[in-house]
Amino acid sequence: MTQHAGPACPPVGVLALQGDVAEHIAALTAVGAAAVPVRRPEQLDEIGGLIIPGGESTTIWKLAVAFDLMEPVRKRIGAGLPAFGCCAGMIMLADRMVDGTGGQETFGGIDMTVRRNAFGRQVDSFESDIELRGIAGPPLRAVFIRAPWVERTGPGVEVLGMDAGTDRIVAVRQGPLLATAFHPELTPDVRLHQLFVDIVREQS
Ligand code: GLN
Question: Which residues does residue 149 pair with via DSSP β-bridges, in sequence order?
Fold first, then answer.
């Protein structure tokens, strides 16, 4: 069922450096939000929220440096811009990271430590049903691809979901910042995109 974000929702950006950009734009469109790919710092002034897609966090970091986006994104997130990071995007939203490579940096924003590639390499990709706090209805089918997990969270971070098989934290929220270790854009279930768009609308 297509849901609607309502007229008060500003456009939602998808960081379009690398990764699942088209899939996130499709999911945002399905919940009635106007979605825009973001590649330039000045576009950050035109959006009410930013999705950081899954892909490869080292590549996203290097391209964010090359496109002069590291500091502008950090600043906007620090100033309260809602953001939703998935997989590599979760890594980009973490204040601390274990197993990064080559001086890899994150935007930060969520007071957590993530372990990169924690679930193993590509062969260890898997799907699992996750019960998510704040999401009504049945558990969400979650696709994990060389995913990180969350090792530690600070006091301001709400744990939204755990993977039952490993008992690891895989979904968190800190104020207007949302992060999942899995890829909600790869399944037709748009409940997490709807939640993010609701957060964007509340903050606008
Ligand atoms: N392992 C990847 C990284 O470090 C994340 C994989 C993904 O986003 N599917 O960025």
Answer: 115
Task: Enter the pTM of the model.
Answer: 0.95
Residue 202 bears catalytic tag: no
CA distance 137 to 28: 20
Of 20, 21, 91, 185, the residue with max ligand 1 atoms within 8 A of its CB, to mutate for a pocket test, comes to: 91
CA of 117 to the centre of ligand 1 (A): 7
Nearest atom (ligand 1) to Cα of 86:
8
Q: For domain 12-203, which CATH number applies: 3.40.640.10, 3.40.50.1000, 3.40.50.880, 3.90.190.20? A: 3.40.50.880
Q: What letter does residue 9 receive in the DSSP assignment?
A: P
pLDDT tens for 65-97 read 999 999 999 999 999 999 999 999 999 999 999
- Assess whether the C-beta atom of 60 lies below 6 angstroms from ligand 1: no
